[in-house]
Amino acid sequence: MTVKNHPEMDTVLEAIKTANEKYKLDTTLLYKKIYELEKSSRYEQSLLYALNQISMEDPNWTFLAANLFLNDLYEKAAKHRGY
Hints:
With 83 residues, this protein is mainly alpha-helical.
């Protein structure tokens, strides 16, 4: 699943896919919600969804949320540095 010409979205989808495989998270509903959103709010909603899924029974959502947040920080740093 990729969205053409949206490298940020590809990064988000890759983080979700990796978390799905590594931590055995059911990300089906997250994928569905992402594709229903406006392109500009997909990242923010993905992060909020992952944060809301964190629980004592399913703490591995923490890793997806952290990865999404870290990617956002890297992107902002790159913009500020002119990369």
